[in-house]
Amino acid sequence: MNIEYKEVDHRIWEEELSWWVPNKIFDAHTHIFRPQDCLLKPDDPDNPRPKYLDEWGVIDVDVTRQWNEALLPGREVHYVLLPGVWRATDWDSCVEFMAQSVASENDPLSVAAMPIHPSMTPEWVDEKLRQYRLAGMKPYRTMTDDPVDCRITDMVPEPLLEVADDWGLIITMHMAKQRALADPENWQDIQRLSAKYPHIRWILAHCARCFAPWAIRDSIEHIADLPNVWIDISAVCASAVFDILLEKFPTERIMYGSDGLAGWDRGKYFWWGYTWDFMPGKEGGTPHASSEPTFVLYEELRSLGHTLRVYDWDQELIQSIFWGNAMRLLHGSSDA
Description:
Elements: H1 7-17, E1 24-31, H2 51-56, H3 61-71, E2 76-82, H4 91-103, E3 111-115, H5 122-132, E4 136-138, H6 152-155, H7 158-167, E5 170-173, H8 184-196, E6 201-204, H9 205-209, H10 213-216, E7 229-232, H11 239-248, E8 254-255, E9 267-272, E10 275-280, H12 296-310, H13 315-331
Parallel strand pairs: 1-2, 2-3, 3-4, 4-5, 5-6, 6-7, 7-8
Antiparallel strand pairs: 9-10
Helix pairs in contact: 1-12, 5-7, 11-12
């Protein structure tokens, strides 16, 4: 794969990131997929086939390692591998791919999750877990009838949560609703479900989908004391969010994530008013400065770095976020 690495990327890595990003990294949120497993059609008016599938092709562990070697040179990286999430999917093929991606690697530390559709039966999910011994589940809001305002149990119904609890799985949850965690239904659901299913380890993706400080400021305290709830920081590019997160949430349950493929895009996630969105980079320049974009992953790390300055670059904190917390969650120890 030809990964274009530009002068702007090199400068940001060398000047702002390389000296504090640790040598051992556990990426708690990265996606792999095969385009053939997506059954959506390009001409579907409601759920068209995503263009990135045919633009990128197969994204497997090999490709993921190539990207990390380019963007995080010299770093040892292990993964929580998450599947592609499409409303129409060849579920058997996708689950097999996720399992094989872990089994074929000489990497006892990386783990994989299976995709979850709300129509799946507990019997089918349990059978796949017995067959493949996957470590987690990945539901997603686009699998539901209301991808904007669905609740957690719309994405992963309680009969499937019972299976996850029996197996002690991780569930990587991308919350829905326009206010994300700030919507009371979301934090109340997390409170209820984490208590009812104590053996599930919840990973709330993208700082509980708080890409803006208004979403996390008054809501994070509602879930901070829940011992089986973790947060990954993937794709968040707002240092104000990290300021609040590190102040109000236990730092031993915060984990680095790249959100590859999205983290390899060029641009940044911005917030304004009471919303946020991805803004692709503008190549043309501006009258006052160069506007050449870098990777979303670098913008995430730059924003985290602004917050870590307040903590005087505490090495124990950095090692926990990038390595120790995921290792303790997945393997019971940070030693490896």
